[in-house]
Amino acid sequence: MKKILLLLVLCLMNTGLLGQASTANIMYYKVKPGQRAAFNEALKNHVAKFRKLGTPYAWAVYNLIGGSHHNEVLALYNVGTSWAQRDELNNLPNNTEASSDFYLKVSPFIEGVTGGEIISYQADYSNSGPNEGSTKMRSNLLTLKYAPAQEFWDVIKRLPKAWDKSGIKVATYQSSGISRLIFARRFPNGWKELDEAPKLKNAYDEIYGKGAYEKDIAIMRNYVVENETVFMTLQPDLSSK
Known about the structure:
Layout: E1 23-31, H1 36-50, E2 59-65, E3 73-81, H2 83-86, H3 96-106, E4 110-121, E5 136-144, H4 150-166, E6 169-175, E7 180-186, H5 200-208, H6 212-221, E8 224-234
């Protein structure tokens, strides 16, 4: 199964000290047909017992619509971990009881597993902090040509001002695997925000001059191989508490 990243996007937990990089790991679970209710119940019990909020084992769990992982479940973990803190992750004791419980009680309902990559928050390309998550998000996953030129990054750095003027919040991430940039838009008022007319083009041109949006979007497209859209909804009953 093709690996993609979300955002993903996405963090509802404390991200640590200011100035440190904020990272997270992701895992996708493809549930067997007709087994979603049983999977949800098993995962809810597993997370409640073994993945308490505030511990290194905590999970945030999302349902996905669209993209390569349509109708799958995303588990986000090591949320808010800095790169320095990742030096210590290998020193954590193996939670063999939790692993056994997941294997025996949850995995029978799983058809496939994908993931393990790391996403890293990019403050210079965002207007929303990694701890400003919402229960509903839309992630655009841009697969990039290898090593985009500086003109691409100059455009990306101009976007946050236009997002501010448009009244939308976006957190931007990069992946540790294939070259990807992730725009995770938060919807604090729910999906109804999508009913509003798009404002980004006019806001961008007001800030950077008439025609700037079309010119800069053309530069971006020149370095994008694929643009995938995924809608994410947090599942609080399946997430750590």
